[in-house]
């Protein structure tokens, strides 16, 4: 989507509920295949209508028509249409059918209808969505247009200039890189023969100066310098600095963060548009979940007293939630800089400073998975060892209690051993 926005000016996601998969499906759509009712407004949800164009195979369209309950004679009348408005090559052999899906809002909900060139696939249908299932992002806003300007639009003149200057430099080197022969035509009536070992006849004395080799003037190096500076300026203004490309070696974490922020400054508007795009995506997906998911079994991550992760299944009714009463905020942002080496170094520092105490399990859990081989098995063995040590400690406490309790005075050693055995049997899962 981001590549489409950078190259074409716009990026678009089209959401729909896939009945076969029983889940939300996302389709990456070209900007030329989304037609806004008001082309001078780039706000998706304020449009009175939106048309989404799809180029699908004949087999898929007939299968879709059958699922929608279209009559057999109408399905048989669906034929491929060789439209050339959507970037397809003239030699494109696959037979595709153009499918138009029209969305509009009526009484607060989104309706849609679907058709081909000759057949109506789906009549007016209420989706019950309150939002258009379309997320739209412009790379660079253009006034009074829902299409944005791409990142490469401003680079095209620079690229043409660089290409022409380099091409002329190549021609100059091909024609002027070697010395030129200048000769007296009155003494060479038959022209100059540059063949190797070929005798050359002259008119007049052979000792007279009849030719000389001249060196052409060198090409100005300002041309190549200007090419390099044009490329450097273009990269810098586009945000493709050395920091963004990883061509620097920062000495510490603060330097890494500083260089990242400096390199991202030219793309700040695009980043904000990208965050808004994902917020729109999340809200649209929640709307589809509210209408289509119904009651489903969802999984929660829970942790027991020992910190072990467990799964808990809960029945959740998506339709029963009234989203109008919710204050929904979607936080989209860049993640913190992270690496396995930095995480391992941080864990080592916490261990040295005694933050983990005497618990090696906490230290192992803080390490990345690939740093320690068989990390999960090692943690399981340590937990088992901790449980065994806890049981032995409880047993020792019982023995001490037996030795100081007056009720046990005069009890034989054999009786004490039987009592301890019964106590150990009862210790599993109990707190004494």
Largest sheet: 5 strands, antiparallel
Q: Which structural class should the secondary elements be placed in?
A: alpha+beta
End-to-end Cα distance? 61 Å
String of helices and strands: HEEEEHHEEEEHEEHHHHEEHHHH
Helix content: 25-40%
Biggest sheet: strands side by side, in what order? 3-4-5-6-7
Contiguous runs where pLDDT drops below 50 for at least 5 residues? 423-432
Query: Number of DSSP strands?
Result: 12
- The Rg value, from CA coordinates, equals 39 Å
The mean pLDDT is 80
Percent of residues in β-strands:
15-25%
- Using the alpha-carbon principal axes, give the shape: flat
| Count of alpha/pi helices | 12
Q: Summed up, what is this model?
A:
It is built from twelve helices and twelve strands. It has helices at 2-8, 58-67, 72-76, 155-176, 222-238, 242-245, 253-264, 268-292, 340-352, 360-366, 375-404, 413-426; strands spanning 10-18, 23-29, 34-36, 49-57, 96-106, 109-115, 120-126, 134-138, 180-183, 211-214, 295-303, 309-317.
Description of the molecule:
The protein has 432 residues and is of the alpha+beta class. Among the domains are: 2-138, no CATH class; 375-432, no CATH class. It is built from 12 helices and 12 strands. It has a 5-stranded antiparallel beta sheet with strand order 3-4-5-6-7. A 3-stranded antiparallel beta sheet has the order 2-1-8. Residues 423-432 have low confidence and may be disordered.
């Amino acid at each position: 989507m981001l590549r489409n926005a950078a190259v074409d000016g716009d990026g678009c996601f089209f959401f729909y509920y896939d009945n076969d998969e029983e889940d939300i499906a996302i389709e990456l759509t070209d900007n030329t295949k989304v037609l806004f009712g008001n082309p001078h407004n780039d706000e998706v949800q304020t449009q009175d209508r939106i048309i989404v164009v799809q180029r699908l195979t004949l087999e898929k369209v007939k299968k879709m028509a059958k699922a929608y309950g279209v009559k057999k004679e109408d399905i048989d009348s669906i034929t491929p249409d060789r439209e050339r408005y959507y970037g397809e090559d003239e030699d494109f052999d696959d037979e595709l059918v153009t499918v138009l899906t029209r969305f509009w809002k009526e009484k607060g909900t989104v309706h849609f209808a679907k058709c081909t060139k000759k057949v109506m696939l789906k009549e007016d249908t209420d989706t019950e969505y309150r939002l258009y299932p379309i997320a739209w992002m412009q790379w660079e806003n253009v006034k009074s247009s829902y299409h944005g300007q791409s990142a490469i639009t401003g680079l095209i003149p620079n690229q043409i200039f660089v290409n022409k200057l380099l091409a002329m430099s190549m021609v100059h080197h091909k024609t002027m890189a070697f010395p030129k022969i200048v000769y007296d035509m009155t003494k060479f009536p038959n022209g100059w023969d540059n063949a190797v070992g070929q005798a050359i006849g002259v008119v007049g004395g052979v000792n007279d100066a009849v030719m000389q080799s001249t060196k052409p003037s060198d090409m100005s190096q300002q041309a190549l310098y200007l090419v390099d500076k044009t490329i450097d300026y273009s990269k810098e203004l586009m945000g493709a600095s050395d920091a963004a490309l990883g061509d620097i070696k920062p000495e510490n974490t603060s330097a890494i963060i500083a260089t990242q922020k400096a390199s991202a400054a030219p793309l700040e508007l695009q980043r904000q548009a990208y965050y808004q795009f994902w917020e729109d995506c999340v809200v649209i997906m929640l709307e589809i979940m509210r209408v289509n998911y119904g009651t489903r079994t969802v999984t929660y991550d829970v942790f027991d007293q020992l910190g072990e992760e467990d799964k808990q299944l809960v029945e959740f009714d998506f339709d029963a939630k009234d989203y109008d009463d919710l204050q929904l905020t979607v936080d989209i942002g860049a993640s913190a800089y992270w690496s396995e080496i930095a995480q391992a170094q941080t864990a080592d520092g916490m261990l040295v400073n005694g933050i983990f105490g005497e618990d090696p399990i906490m230290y192992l859990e803080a390490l990345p998975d690939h740093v320690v081989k068989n990390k999960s098995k090692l943690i399981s063995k340590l937990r088992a060892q901790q449980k065994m040590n806890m049981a032995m400690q409880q047993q020792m406490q019982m023995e001490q209690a037996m030795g100081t309790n007056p009720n046990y005075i005069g009890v034989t050693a054999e009786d004490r051993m039987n009592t301890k055995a019964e106590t150990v049997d009862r210790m599993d899962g109990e707190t004494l």
